[in-house]
From TrEMBL, chain A:
It is found in: Cytoplasm. This is Eukaryotic translation initiation factor 3 subunit C. Its main location: cytoplasm. Keywords: Cytoplasm, Initiation factor, Protein biosynthesis. Belongs to the eIF-3 subunit C family. Residues 243-262 have a biased composition (Basic and acidic residues). The lineage of its organism: Eukaryota, Metazoa, Ecdysozoa, Arthropoda, Hexapoda. Residues 162-175, 213-238 have a biased composition (Acidic residues). It comes from Drosophila busckii (Fruit fly).
From TrEMBL, chain B:
Component of the eukaryotic translation initiation factor 3 (eIF-3) complex. The eIF-3 complex interacts with pix. Interacts with mxt. InterPro entries: eIF3e, eIF3e_N, PCI_dom, WH_DNA-bd_sf. Component of the eukaryotic translation initiation factor 3 (eIF-3) complex, which is involved in protein synthesis of a specialized repertoire of mRNAs and, together with other initiation factors, stimulates binding of mRNA and methionyl-tRNAi to the 40S ribosome. The eIF-3 complex specifically targets and initiates translation of a subset of mRNAs involved in cell proliferation. The gene is eIF3e. Keywords: Cytoplasm, Initiation factor, Protein biosynthesis. Pfam families: eIF3_N, PCI. This is Eukaryotic translation initiation factor 3 subunit E. It comes from Drosophila busckii (Fruit fly). Its main location: cytoplasm. GO terms for molecular function: translation initiation factor activity. PANTHER family: EUKARYOTIC TRANSLATION INITIATION FACTOR 3 SUBUNIT E. Belongs to the eIF-3 subunit E family. Residues 219-392 form the PCI domain. Signal peptide: none annotated. The keyword Lyase does not apply.
Length: 919, 434
């Protein structure tokens, strides 16, 4: 998670993490005041202001629409205007004695003029779009009807069109705004959704919402909105004189022009201030803070000419509030949206829009202050949308360079090679992390999870967009990083196409110009790029692991194995970070499954043994925490561990894993036990399997098997007597099919393979166990017993003879196996035992010497594991966990040393004393 | 048989001149279309300066008898360049001839000193000698080329940028003049150079791959090569890795070498491990034969594969000379394995497995028994061969086990002694300082 921040030379994306991380990057001068001042400034608006501001806003948009002759929108804005006016009517009647505000009249007059003008201009009318023409008619009718109510005022206005209206407007707007309180609640509950392609109408909507939100935060501080309007006028004017002074200083520049109105207004404000002061004493309200919006009730002065520097200044102003304790984060987001729409409205160019998009993204990230908690769903949807639209813009406009290395001063928005500061890579990485968090929050078995998971497609799409962007303009390092993200969304997904192609059911890779490349090919391409270009070890390691995982998933056993052996990952994985180790474990688990499917039982066992021997594969694969035992973990630790967990859809089925492990252990262990039944130096191949076996032996009454483990144990018991049929029935039956085997892609093939192996190993076990009863066994009858083809039986027996496991030879004319087992006499047997023990002694001596020498750990195959392309073919099998096993042998040997006969112990001691003396 | 033909792959790793023998060999084998092959040869030859060979190939292709204008022109050009280069080098060579008889020939340093002192030798001369050698080589005059290369090798310091090229050139020229002894020397020198030089991993891998291919030519033609090839390919991890990663098809030659080398039977086990490991990237009848015999103990399969092996070997330039040996040894291998497993074999079955007639087989077995390589008796009434198997008696087992023990103990005692001596020495040394 923190990687997102760790990268940050980019202050834009570096947001407030846990608490406050003030990044006062763009210091706008108007933010340099103390808290006191803020207190005062915060409360300046009355209902009247709000209402009026609402009106002026709409009027402004109407004006804008008029400029570009967008009549359809003018119409809708006009409708909004009338509605807003009706809302404002009570205030107007109260405050201004029913006189309609002048700016409103002026607007109506202008609108009428505009309509008449357009209507007269017949040529122009023809050129209008269908939609606009239609709207024009409607608008004309509506306006005519509407202004009948205002005829008197209109006439007066036309007589003396004055310039004073500006002043009034500001005033009016202030007082009007307050009135919006009453219905502000509805505005908030509605989700804040604005499409980037919105028509200017949206501007107004957003503006309104900003208002609403703003007011809402007011309310949450102060009191119930409904009571406000009733109480507001009853306040004592004389209280808090000094507050009033302060306010006077702060209010809008032209306020002194209209005394009457101000009095009222001031009354309300004071009231609020007082309330605020009271609340502040409590202190508990401090965390929720109104942002800077109150001083900026609207984005720009209404007549201000909106151009790039202005918007930029505004943007910097908004963004500089981030990370501050008192900033309302949601408000910031909304403000930025508004700004974006304004910028689009004035066609300030794509770069500005990208810049604002980017800032919206970081603002959304900022919203959530606790890093461990997922973001809200609505924000998530918003984020995805903004991210995608930003990337699309970036892709469509190749002359925009968005890069974290661009310094603030170098940003360029006016001329063709645009330069913008920002890092889409960090943004998308954060996006991905947020997505994982969201997933982890859901209950994996609920529909919620599925619904969330649907967004995966979108995330992948977004990543793909970023990949495209960086393929065009990124450095190698950046490409590696984004490729890794893509890989991490790809590697665990199974693509049946690959297997079909491999079996030749579909045209092979060469002829796939028309079809999309299979996921394995995509993986190959991405990983190879990373192998070649990456210079941080971590990305490469992860890419290799994912690559192996993917290969293993698609049954490319040899490729996967070679990658493991050549990368020498198993040597230094212990030094890696936890999440990489988890990936390593996942890879090993999958490799084991792949080996099993590909009939490499021994390798499967080797891959899985390290995971299973600990008894907590669940934890090792990060698929769930083990229950607490006596507070092993602190709360802190548990939190960290929780963060590492894999989302549910990436889990590897643990029962499948365990079953595969136990079955492969059974196939190896049972013949081994049979062969070394009387061997003093027998060792276990699989400890876990032994435990299962022993625990079942301890039971006084063994019922029919229920769980997967019981099935395997029962099968193992059957195999010990060479009863392959029973064994196969225990392993492959309906219960096991639903529990385990059906989870494989080609389960039938796996089952066939299993039965084949069970037959072979049972045969071997049978021969080991019962060979001393026979002098000769007929091969055809063996073949019949085990339902194996004759050559196969022949080959198995031959192998046993050659490896000197079976003291026998074949008699060709009679097709029998003739046993040569000669039972040693009592004396001979004792002598053999004695020799074994002497051998032990020598072993121990050598070990003692080695330890003294200090090169004890360089024994065996450790020495010849050098880096490079070296594949350690000598101990191919032992490579997986060879080291561990070596150590264990030595330990075992050591233990046996303690069980020696008295005499030999003395002997040994003597020898050791000698050794020491000699030294 | 084209599916098992490796010429196409091998040629990628050989010098242009080295490919001609291979291609000519193929011409006689009728695996590919003769016409196409010749055209290909012509194309390749055209890239060299061997004008006469070009003409010859053209004749074989039944193109016009007359020499095309451009060829005549080129011939003149080539001769002129040759002349010019020879003139440049002439004084030095003369000097060398004189010095050769004298004392200074003993080691390269004194030789170079003498050259510099008495004959005004300069680096440019070396450069032109190198150029001339290369030119001669390109013209197909390998014999002369080697002598200039030899000169270069003596005079050049190993740090020279051309040193590696000279080594390669020398090896190629020696191979082409069929000078196997010197070729082997050059091979070792080149190998040492590659192993010691500071190549990047990929470069080293590439160099080794080339070296492996070239050395196959030498090894199968030199008397000692059969041991050396096993030594180098199988037991030098660097080269084994190169084979595994770059050219698994070399397994064919390695397998052949192991099969025909009776003294190195223990290499078989290692070889089979490698074959199994690489079976997914490369398999051909020869590796499959070994796999059948030693992994699956499928004698029927081994028999069939042996049959295929014969055709494969017959069509492979590198190992065609070993055909008879291979078949003989392969049979012996089958038979040996057979004997280890069986105590009684019918001769007819054996003959079948060995691709022989029963009479021949009996004769063959009789010879084996007489040479005491086989402890067996023939029961001619039933047509059986009965092995004189001796199950390992417990007594023997005991002796075997104890055998190694005394060895190990002795070794240990020796080590301890040495250690204590060293310690004494050290303690004496450390006393000196006080």
């Amino acid at each position: 998670m923190s990687r997102f921040f760790a990268n940050g030379s980019d202050s834009e994306s570096e947001s407030s993490e846990e608490e406050v991380l003030v990044q006062n990057y763009n210091k706008a001068s108007n933010f340099q005041f103390s808290d006191d001042e803020e207190e005062v400034k915060r409360v300046v608006r009355s209902t009247k202001e709000k209402r009026y501001e609402n009106l002026t806003d709409i009027i402004k948009t109407i004006r804008n629409h008029k400029k570009i002759k967008d009549i359809a929108n003018t119409l809708s804005s006009f409708e909004d205007l009338t509605r807003a006016y009706t809302k404002a009517l009570p205030v107007i009647s109260k405050e201004e004695n029913g006189i309609t505000p002048r700016f409103y009249i002026r607007c109506l007059a202008e609108l009428e003029d505009f309509i008449n003008e357009v209507w007269e201009d017949r040529d122009g009318r023809k050129n209008l779009s269908k939609n606009n023409t239609k709207s024009l008619g409607t608008l004309r009718q509506k306006v005519r009807k509407y202004i009948k109510d205002f005829e008197e005022e209109m006439a007066r206005f036309r007589e003396a069109p004055d310039q004073e209206s500006d002043v009034e407007e500001v005033e009016a707007q202030d007082s009007d705004a307050e009135r919006a309180d009453a219905d502000s609640d509805d505005g908030i509950s509605a989700p804040v959704v604005t499409k980037p392609a919105d028509q200017p109408k949206a501007v107004k909507v957003v503006a309104a919402k900003v208002q609403a939100d703003d007011d809402d935060s007011d309310d949450s501080i102060d009191w119930d909105p409904d009571t406000e309007s009733e109480t507001e006028s009853s306040e004592d004017e004389n209280q808090y004189q000094n507050m009033r002074e302060r306010f006077l200083k702060r209010a809008t520049e032209k306020e002194d022009k209209d005394d009457d109105k101000r009095k009222d207004k001031r009354k309300e404000q004071k009231h609020k201030i007082r309330k605020r002061a009271e609340d502040d004493e409590d202190g508990e309200w401090e965390t929720v803070v109104k942002g800077n919006v109150v001083e900026k009730p609207k984005m720009f002065e209404k007549d201000a000419e909106i151009d790039i520097p202005l918007v930029l200044a505004k943007l910097i102003e908004i963004m500089s509030a981030r990370g501050k304790k008192r900033t309302d984060r949601r408000l910031q987001i909304d403000l930025l949206f508004e700004l974006r729409d304004i910028a689009e409205l004035h066609q300030l160019g794509v770069p500005i829009s990208v810049k604002i998009h980017f800032n919206i993204i970081s603002a959304i990230y900022d919203y959530n202050q606790k890093i461990s908690e997922p973001m809200k769903l609505e924000h998530w949807a918003l984020l995805l949308e903004v991210m995608q639209s930003m990337m699309k813009i970036l892709l469509v406009n190749p002359d925009i360079n968005m890069n974290e290395s661009v310094a603030e001063e170098q940003e360029e928005y006016n001329a063709a090679p645009y330069f913008i500061r920002g890092c889409p890579l960090a943004a998308v990485e954060r996006l991905d992390d947020e997505f994982t968090k969201l997933l982890k929050e859901c209950d994996p078995h609920s529909n919620d999870y599925v619904a969330r998971l649907k967004d995966e497609v979108n995330v992948v799409k977004t990543i793909e967009l970023v990949v495209q962007y960086f393929e065009r303009a990124g450095s190698n390092n950046e490409r590696c990083r984004i490729y890794l993200r893509k890989i991490e969304h790809l590697y665990y997904k199974f693509d049946p196409e690959v297997l079909k192609r491999k079996r030749g059911e579909q045209p092979a890779t060469a002829a796939t110009t028309t079809t999309a490349p299979s996921s394995v090919e995509v993986m190959d391409k991405l990983c190879k790029f990373i192998y070649a270009k990456d210079d941080t070890d971590r990305i490469r390691t992860r890419a290799i692991l994912a690559h192996i995982y993917h290969h293993a998933m698609h049954d490319n056993w040899f490729q996967a194995r070679d990658l493991v052996l050549m990368s020498h990952l198993q040597d230094n994985i212990d030094a890696a970070d936890p999440s990489t180790r988890i990936l390593y474990n996942r890879m090993m688990a999958n490799l084991g499954l792949c080996a099993f499917r590909q009939e490499n039982i021994k390798d499967a066992h080797h891959c899985l043994v390290d995971l299973m021997v600990t008894g907590k594969p669940k934890e090792l694969l990060a698929q769930g925490l083990l229950p607490q035992r006596q507070h092993e973990r602190s709360a802190e630790q548990e939190k960290i561990e929780k963060q590492r967990q894999m989302p549910f859809h990436m889990h590897i089925n643990l029962e499948l894993l365990e079953c595969v492990y136990l079955v492969s252990a059974m196939l190896l262990e049972i013949p081994y036990i049979a062969a070394h039944e009387f061997d003093a130096r027998r060792r276990m191949i699989s400890k876990t399997f032994y435990q299962q076996l022993r625990s079942s032996e301890r039971q006084s009454l063994v019922g029919p098997p229920e769980s997967m483990r019981e099935h395997v144990v029962a099968a193992a018991k059957a195999m010990r007597c060479g009863n392959w049929q029973a064994c196969a029935n225990f392993i492959v039956n309906k219960k096991m099919n639903t529990k385990v085997w059906d989870l494989f892609y080609e389960s039938d093939r796996v089952r066939e393979m299993l039965v084949k192996f069970i037959k072979e190993e049972s045969l071997r076990t049978y021969l080991f166990t019962y060979s001393n009863v026979y002098t000769s066994i007929s091969i055809p009858s063996l073949a019949q017993m085990y339902e194996l083809p004759l050559p196969k039986v022949h080959s198995i027996i031959s192998k046993m003879i050659i490896n000197e496991e079976l003291m026998a030879s074949l008699d060709d004319p009679t097709e029998t196996v003739v046993m040569h087992r000669s039972e040693p006499s009592r004396l001979q047997a004792l002598a053999m035992q004695f020799v074994d023990k002497v051998t032990n002694l020598v072993d121990v001596n050598e070990k003692v010497f080695d330890m003294k020498q200090g090169n004890f750990f360089q024994r065996g195959n450790m020495g010849n594991r050098d880096r490079g392309y070296n594949r350690n073919q000598n101990n191919q099998g032992g490579n997986w966990g060879g080291q561990r096993r070596d150590n264990r042998n030595q330990r075992n040997r050591n233990q046996r040393g303690h069980h020696k006969q008295q005499q030999q112990q003395q002997q040994q001691q003597q020898q050791q004393v000698q050794t020491i003396e000699e030294e | 048989m084209a599916q098992f033909d490796l010429t196409r792959i091998n040629c990628q790793y050989l010098d242009r001149h080295l490919t001609f023998p291979l291609l000519e060999f193929l011409c006689g084998k009728e695996i590919y279309n003769q016409q196409e092959l010749l055209e290909y040869i012509l194309e390749t030859v055209n890239k060299t300066n061997m004008i006469d060979y070009t003409m010859d190939t053209r004749k074989r292709l039944n193109l016009s008898q007359e020499m095309p204008e451009e060829l005549v022109q080129r011939k003149a050009e080539v001769l002129a360049t040759l002349k010019q280069l020879q003139n440049e080098v002439a004084p030095i060579m003369k000097a060398t001839d004189i010095l050769k008889n004298g004392e200074s020939m003993k080691d390269s340093k004194t030789f170079v000193n003498a050259l510099q002192k008495d004959y005004n030798f300069k680096v440019e001369h070396l450069e032109s000698a190198y150029k001339l050698a290369k030119y001669l080589y390109e013209c197909g005059n390998y014999q002369e080329s080697t002598s200039y290369l030899y000169f270069c090798l003596i005079v050049m310091s190993p740090n020279d940028k051309n040193y590696l090229n000279v080594l390669w050139g020398k090896l190629a020229a020696e191979i082409l003049t069929l000078n196997w002894n010197t070729a082997l020397e050059d091979l070792t020198r080149l190998r040492d150079y590659i192993d010691s030089a500071n190549f990047s991993t990929i470069q080293a891998l590439q160099q080794r791959t080339w070296l492996i291919h070239w050395s196959v030519l030498v090894f199968f033609n030199h008397a000692k090569g059969r041991d050396l090839i096993i030594e180098m390919f199988l037991y030098k991890p660097l080269y084994l890795n190169a084979i595994q990663t770059m050219c698994p098809h070399i397994m064919r030659y390695l397998a052949t070498a192991v099969v025909i080398n009776r003294t190195r039977r223990n290499a078989l086990k290692d070889l089979i491990k490698v074959i199994q490991q690489e079976s997914y990237t490369y398999r051909d009848p020869i590796t499959e034969f070994l796999e059948c015999l030693y992994v699956n103990f499928d004698f029927e399969g081994a028999r069939l594969k042996l049959h295929e092996c014969q055709t494969v070997i017959l069509n492979d330039f590198f190992i065609v000379a070993c055909l008879n040996e291979f078949v003989e040894d392969a049979r012996l291998m089958i038979f040996e394995t057979f004997c280890r497993i069986h105590q009684c074999i019918t001769i007819s079955m054996l003959a079948d497995k060995l691709n022989m007639k029963p009479n021949e087989a009996e004769c063959w077995i009789v010879n084996l028994i007489r040479n005491a390589r086989l402890n067996a008796k023939i029961d001619s009434k039933l047509g059986h061969v009965v092995m004189g198997t001796q199950p390992l008696s417990p007594y023997q087992q005991l002796v075997e086990k104890i055998d190694s023990l005394s060895m190990r103990s002795e070794h240990l005692a020796g080590l301890i002694e040495r250690k204590s001596k060293q310690k004494n020495q050290e303690s004496i040394d450390s006393w000196k300082y006080y």
